[in-house]
Amino acid sequence: MNMNRELEYMFVQCARVWIPDAEEVWKSAELTKDFKNGDASLQLMLEDGTSIEHKLDPKTKNLPYLRNPDILVGENDLTALSYLHEPAVLHNLKVRFIDSKLIYTYCGIVLVAINPYETLGIYGTDIINAYSGQNMGDMDPHIFAVAEEAYKQMARDERNQSIIVSGESGAGKTVSAKYAMRYFATVSGSTSEANVEQKVLASNPIMEAIGNAKTTRNDNSSRFGKYIEIGFDTRYRIIGANMRTYLLEKSRVVFQADEERNYHIFYQLCASSHLPEFKTLKLSSANDFLYTRQGRSPVIQGVDDTKELSTTRNAFTLLGINESYQMGLFQVLAAILHLGNVEIKDKDSDSSLIPPNNRHLTAFCELVGVTYQDMTQWLCHRKLKTATETYVKTLPCLQATNARDALAKHIYAKLFNWIVEHVNKALITNIKQHSFIGVLDIYGFETFEINSFEQFCINYANEKLQQQFNMHVFKLEQEEYMKEQIPWTLIDFYDNQPCINLIEAKMGILDLLDEECKMPKGSDDSWAQKLYNTHLKTCSLFEKPRMSNRAFIIQHFADKVEYQCEGFLEKNKDTVNEDQINVLKASKKFDLLVELFQDEEKATSPTGQVPGTGGRTRLSIKPDKGRDKSSKEHKKTVGCQFRNSLQMLMDTLNATTPHYVRCIKPNDFKLAFSFDPKRAVQQLRACGVLETIRISAAGFPSRWTYQEFFSRYRVLMKQKDVLSDKKLTCRNVLEKLVEDQDKYQFGKTKIFFRAGQVAYLEKLRADKLRVACIRIQKTIRCWLARKKYLRKRSAAITIQRFTRGYQARCLAKFMRRTQAATIIQKYQRMYMERKRYKQKQAAALVMQTILRAYMARQKYQGLVREHNAVIIQKRVRGWLARCWYKRCLVSLVYLQCCFRRMKARRELKKLKIEARSVEHFKKLNKGMENKIMQLQRRIDEQSKDNRSINEKLVSLETSSTAERERMRGELSRLRGVEEDAKNKGNQVTSLLEQLEKLRKELSSTQKEKKTIEDWAQTYRDEMEKMVSELKDQNCSLKKEKDDLNRLIQEQSQQMTEKMARAIVEKTQQLETDLNEERSRYQNLLTEHRRLEEKYDDLKEAMVSSNVSKPGHRRTDSTHSSNESEYTYNSEYAELEEGSRAAEDVTRGMDTSLTLKLQKRLTELEQEKQSLRNELENREDQFQRARARDDVEFKKARGAELEYESLKRQELESENKKLKHDLVEIRRSLLGNAATGAGAPGSPAYKVVLEQLNASCEELEVRKEEVLILRSQLVSQKEAMHHKDEKETMTEPSAYVEDVSKLKDAGELKQAYIGLKDTNRSPRFMRKPLEVSDLLSRLRSAAPDFHKLNEDGELWLVNQGLKETIRLLEHQLQTQRRGYDSEVESLRGELQNVKEENNRQQQLLAQNLQLPPEARIEASLQHEITRLTNENLELLAEDPTASREARVIILRRMVDLMEQLEKQDRTIRKLKKQLKVYSKRIGEMGAGQTEGQTSPGQMVDEPIHPVNIPRREKDFQGMLEYKKEDELKLVKNLILELKPRGVAVNLIPGLPAYILFMCLRHADYVNDDQKVRTLLTSTINSIKKILKKRGDDFETVSFWLSNTCRFLHCLKQYSGDEAFIKHNTQRQNEHILSNFDLAEYRQVISDLAIQIYQQLIKCMENILQPMIVSGMLEHETIQGVSGVKPTGLRKRTSSIVDEGTYTLDSILRQLSAFHSTMCQHGTDPELIKQVVKQQFYIIGAVTLNNLLLRKDMCSWSKGMQIRYNVSQLEEWLRDKGLMTCGAKETLEPLIQAAQLLQVKKKTDEDAEAICSMCLALTTAQIVKVLNLYTPVNEFEERVSVAFIRTIQTRLRDRCESPQLLMDTKMIYPVTFPFNPSSLALETIQIPSSLNLSFLTRV
Prior knowledge:
The relative contact order is 0.05. Helix 4 (143-157) crosses helix 5 (173-188) and helix 6 (196-211) packs across helix 7 (264-271). With 1897 residues, the protein is of the alpha+beta class. It has 57 helices and 26 strands.
């Protein structure tokens, strides 16, 4: 308390202090009077209002400890407290533990963990994920934070780590160590499928079963120490572990105190003795055995020993200990229990015996495989050896019992070591260990009423650990000061080296104990005397009790402990009868027992290591007894072994970076969240926490960065004090505020304060804020008073205003009336004057109009005359000008000719003169020889050219001659064909005669039909009578139905309401279930993809390690669920080679690994299929639920439908009869036709048969169309509540009207083409009717068709045929008139022979240019004209044969149309070839054909060749590629495509369109192999690029957009009605025609889901580092929240520094995501789902961090969060995404922020909170309230009573107890159909894609 003398100025009135108290250790009190120097006492008032006088110590005059400000109470780190002392630490721990339910607290580098004695939900996987990757100071204290810090330092510093967990029994050491190992196993994983992390965790239940027991302080107390090294590889993944154990408490095997138990494994065996496999162990209840009933507490409440044994056995199995070894272990344990029940009786005073046939000894011998006699002999005897002889000595009963117990302990120790050894073997792997993290779970300082050898060793170990801890803390403090360049002064701290020397130094306690053990007659008493004589006077730490000579006292670092010397020597020797051991070794039936004692024969190493255990120490091993006599002298004692192993442990810890966890036991009664201050203080002193506080407080415990200090104490500065340099500003302010410069020091980055200075600064800050608050209150009150005054003044003015207003309104009313009268008069007068004026104006306008019209007409006539005159003049003048121009031109040409002739004559004369001169001759002869040579060569070349040209001309003449001969032959053949055509014309006459016979037969058939119609009439009358009777019955039934309907209607309304509610509820439930199933299915896809990637990685690793081939070989990476489910396999050669290579590699892999992967894949596929089936079932249920109303309505229509079905059945039966009659008529016709002139085999008869069959087929087709239309109309009629039946006939009537509108031949041709396509469709592909059947139908009277079918089906068909025939008649008549006129003109032209010959030559030339098929077309055209005219004439002559003629004409027209179409196509093709050939011929013979016209050319063909451009073919929206180019297509379009260039420069989704256009062509050519390989390559390539660049958001977004577009294209062009209704007519022409790709659509949908999940993961990785900093830590509203002292564990600063993420960073990133997706053309609905997922991640991560950070739970932080959320909502509004559901995902965060800001005092506040926080769980609400921390003194904490009230009100909520939100949760994604309006034929492929090998089709 000397420090408090320096803070005397703080002891003023109202200051709070701590005073000692006998019950609570420390009590809080408040000064009622200022303390003055020299006062002997303090005037205090306790918290309960009691006033006391606290007297100061007259010697020391020390003042009491000052209490910290309330805002510092409950801090995460004890070093953040302004006053560091014991009462402050105790109070802070109590507040956190009791009020906030927080069990973890930092104390510098130490994590203090208080055992809650209650299961807490803070150790789940979600908590592990929340702490993973976080800095230790950024989150609330937790064991996971320490584990993460160790893991991070191991990876960062490349240094091994240790976590030292200590504390007394029951403090929770084992649980803390277990959670630390679980954290490592979760965050690191393992390098193989050996599940090393699971094995590490599985070792815990085994070690707890054999090494833990119930004590009075702990139900699961570890009775041994262990140090587990968890090994990691270079990638810091778990590869194995190793365990060292220390000082097993063997005495517990044979003895337990009251309310304690033996080791758990014994009770687990006894509880499971009823199991069949344990019958041979002969076990029973634990109360039946001595070794398990001494504590009289065989059962632990809430623990099922049977289940625990099952867990232990499963752990054994996981670690590779098979069933036989497990049964052997249990056999040994059962033998120990039976051995304890062996009763030994006194025979005499020096001997003992075992009664014969002892069942327990018998069971023991049977279990261990030894003889009963041997064990009886050596349990009661022992062997003594001298130099010459060996004696057998009897043992008294007590010694024999001790020997039995010693044997039991020895066997258990051996068994314990054997299990530890095999556990280590299971945890060790062959992979080289790179680093490790050690977890030390060791006993804490212990002091009991009776302390023996075990407590001595435990406290000795704690002394060593405390020394190491003090040195580490001292070292860290020194490093911190040196780092900040603070002057270092030596800090005095407690050094326990003297106590350690007392124990382990030469002639120390252990040395004297070993020496006494070597003495022949050494005893505990003699050893005690040696201790007294040696240390009592020389060492101050050693004392002798006053009342005992067999005990000693040691002053440990924690407390004084009195040890009883009894038993020290025996426990140090750890002796056992060698003869008993030899008997067990001789067991031949039990190999495990022999294995246990094998190490007895091996030499013990100096450090006590056991070979075969990895060089690790086993502290409970026995010294070697079996070698020879001399080895006994060198046997290590237990104390010596323990000292050596402890030294080895300290060497290991010193070589690592330690992390400390100190476990505190809050009470001795195991009460949940109950805090005993006395017990807590004892443990705090013992575990070194207070020593850490003392070391820290001795220097500068409070440390602030300059930025934090400036932000916190900015209010204490004046404006002039604030400089640009924050460091200089802080220095100047501190010099003014704190005068004593020794109270602080300035470091490089921090300011160091001595204890109490931060509290002083906080006091100044609070005073300044209090003054500011008073000023604000004064101003507010002034404003309120002035506002009240102004309100009164405004009210008076308002009264005056209304009074004056009333008077003014009265005056205004009078003035308005006066003004109104004046206005009325004005408007009346104005009306009269205006009426008079308008009359005059109208008269004037009429006169003007007439006059102006007359003048305009005159002017117009003049202009017309003038215009005509101008035209005449223009024409005349033009003619005159042309005449003049022609005369002038002729004259000029004549003059030019004359002039040129004259000039030429003169030049000729001149040349003649020059030619005669000698000089000219010489000049000409110069170089003449050379010119002659050149001319000779030129002549030779021209002669060669002439010869070649002549040869060409000869060949051309020869070819032309041959062609001419061929054409003449063709002409003769055509003339023969013409003669044949004339002969066939004669055959038409015979056909007409046959038709006449058919007409006669038709008349006879009509007579028969008349008789049938008469019979039908009688039948119809009978049916009408029956129908009338049925109608009468129906009327009566209708009356009954109406009555029932009234009743049903009333009930139906009620049922409808109930069903509607039920349907809504069921629909909601089904939608929820559907979303859950989708989520499960998509999670399975994620898991499947993860396994695929893992499998591919393993395969690549195996290939790289085992298959080293030169060059690049592509491996098969298509092991996906898509191909396994739909068996789509690529057949590329390279893929096959890759598959074979992969198979070769897989054969070399681990068989167990392969089987596991295959089994896992099979399970996932089965589960995926089951989920898909269940999803379909759910959707079917959803549809059925919606259809229930329709079913109910259909039931009401049952009676009417039955009546209609009855009528339909009657009509069908009647139709069957008529058909039967027609069949008979057909037979009769066939019989009659056989005797007629036109035999069935004749050509004419065949023509008639073909025509009638075609008509019959069309009749059937039309009938089927009518039936289909009728069924559709009937269904529409029922759905529209029974509309008029006439409406059902609208569509057929419309069809008739449409037919009647076909006026010309073009329309008729189009109608024919549509009819032909309809007939060729699969629906109408049926066998045509027979001729007789068609004739029988045609012979039936047309007007009676409507009577045969009341529904009008046949009547509609007949009417349609009639309209068609009328149309054809009209067309034929028109053509006949045209043909007649043409024949007349031809006859006139035939008179002129020359013109006729020329025309024939032209036609011949045209025909010779066409192929043989096209040559017939002309003759067919003439034949069509002639036959048509003849048929028309025949029709006009014989009206009775009109029906047969129409049928013949129709069939003939159809045939001719088909031929015409075929010929047109052929002609177009040949014309193109002809143009090409003619061009080539023209180029070759242009010089030879001048002035001539070949016979093969047209008359008007130009002489010179003309370059005729080819017409571009229409693009059908398909792309063709060769099969060998498929890899190139995938490579250029997927693997090497850069999304950024495509997104910026090209249309969105271009790769998807290109792939679909390639797929369309493969479908068009019906190539299933090409379709399969293209789709498989596309899917695998997308997977490959995503695996390679899966962390690039732009790439993932690009392929998500393209995959969805590809999926939409497959749907849009699939042909399904649900999709094609959105297409244009042109798009419907592009529908896939050959393949149904529905299964591939599912595969691509699964791929899209995987890409979506990859996109979410990528976004999460980008957003994760920004969220906490931007949403929580950054102060968006500056100055609202203040920075509190943080202590040693510094948090991330909330001040904006370079590189710090802010809210703007998050918004910019969100905008970047959104713009990227929009550029890629992502579907708007998909963008909404992505944004919703983004906001869920932001809300979940922010809320989780808020729930795990106490410093963030304040009122000001709530305001910051709400402002940040409003900015996010504003972003949603700007982007138009408010309806996407993203805002709702932030609701939990919004409610948490509101919870931080609302009042939290009264019951009304509690009710408001419960009704407001509906999106938060009870655990989250209570957590926020517990964490709520005031930042300033003006805020108040949440009372415990208020939190209890909240819990009571929320007790009935049914919700998950999970605290944190699942940040890994992904909403199930859907891909709504989004058709594209882009036409495929308009898409252009840019050259940048390098796809020139694609051909547009």
